[in-house]
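ugh finaly. both done.
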Amino acid sequence: MQLTGKVVFWRDDKGFGFVVCDQTQQKLFFHIRDHAGTEGRPQMGDTLQFNVKQDKQGRDIAAPWQFVTAKTTTLAPPHKAAVHSDSLSIQYANQIALLFRISFLVAVIIALLFGRLLYILPLLYLEASLFTYWLYKTDKEAAIARHGNRVTEESLQLFSLIGGWPGAYIAQQQLAHKRSKQSFRREFGFVILGNTLLVIWLLSPWGEQFLARMALWAG
């Protein structure tokens, strides 16, 4: 059934917004890729005609949609400045990720040599989780904008492996990102298992002996 509604939010650089249905008063997500016409881009206050379907997460969205009144402007790609901004965001995320990996490795080595790894382990987990959540958020925004340059899945899994998996799990649930891809979810499960086994080993007598030997060697 064809429904109508008014646009109450629109972000042109990302190509998505929200429309409130006149018939049901439901607030629905819509994306520029589901535009059934060839003219114009939506603005706040525009009236749309649309159907309701479900996305991959089972949520109702307005798609396909078109303008009730034809727009006079032509459909244009996202502004170059917006695309450039997205590219800079991903490049910045990748650069910070590299610096974080180096800093994390140095911190672990120093903690091992001085026999303090178990004492700073909670702090390392917290920092890795916060950083991993930020990476997921950055990649989610790039995915919404349909940006070709993305944070690699290998990077997301790596930061989960070194202790950021709690942050990754929260990001998957809150941001609805990377939780429907079965291959990624399966790898994520192995990452959690591997990280958990490593921590259990470090807390075991064998792990304590290893940490003691490292501290002795450093001394």
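ok and the 2nd:
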Amino acid sequence: MSLLDEAGNVRQGEELDPIVIKEYFKQVQPSLNGEVSITQFPGGASNLTYQVSLGDQDFILRRPPFGDIAKSAHDMLREAKIIKALKPVYPYVPEIISMCEDPSVLGCDFYVMEKLTGIIPRQNMPKELSLDKEQTRGLCLNVIDKLIELHQVDIKATGLDGLGKGAGYVARQISGWSDRYIKAKTADATDFKVVMDWLKANMPEDSGQSLIHNDFRLDNVVLNEQNPLQVIGVLDWEMATVGDPLMDLGNSLAYWVESGDEPQFQMMRRQPTHLRGMLTRNEVIEYYLEKTGRQAESFTFYEVYGLFRLAVIIQQIYYRYYHGQTQDKRFAGFVHAAKYLESRCLRYIEKEA
């Protein structure tokens, strides 16, 4: 069995018309020949990722989810433009092949990029990939180094400095995510009032301005098949912007489930951070601060923010399911996941107090 990350069957309700797709690809690259084959990568609670194969060539197509969505929340052309601007200075992004804003093709904006062939460390490492404790630690550090490298990119050199709104990033995030949660709250959801009030009352000043990924996880990186400790790609730039790098790290830690975490958190694990050799959340913080020279009197605010933000994202997805905008059964229990994240936030707050 191959170690490579492979696409599978397209989920029901998320099919693409192969005739339309083939016609579009022939317009983009007239030299393409062969039958079209469309498969879909797992995950995709937000933007959807497909593999389009024509003959012996494979491409990746990214489009927003089906259903009634706000375009600003799934701005595909923005994501593609960020990737394209990053390519010369951050070589871990794929090459953009085409961007489409013609609604007559798929009824939405979408883009096509090269396929980065490699291993993606999803919920569990491939069984065929046996890393010992030291190798696992090395992989972990290499992944964190890619986040650090991103935060050190010269924003002006990329031309992406216009993405940010300047000082006040922390305050904008707390206000914005609080407002999003209130709008996405369903009758069966918790209110998060204590958490939102605490975040608003404990906001630190911005620690700086960097290019931030906003969804940096192990299952968004691609590893070299020949050397699985080497990161060759970073994917999913949907939420990238210019902002506070410590907030970005806080976002990443919300997904960082350790081997000793309670069962409810283990059920939410999407990346293999539970393996022997993986750094703990505290070790990640220490490594990042030491290597970047940044300082944080307490990291609790950033960790609570990351968990709250994740809860909002989960609740927004559940809102679509609750109101029948998607039939994807994976989302049926998301309201309980959001409630659990509230309890984690409250424990951090209580410990800090």
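summary for the 2nd one i guess: The first strand starts at residue 36 and ends at 40.
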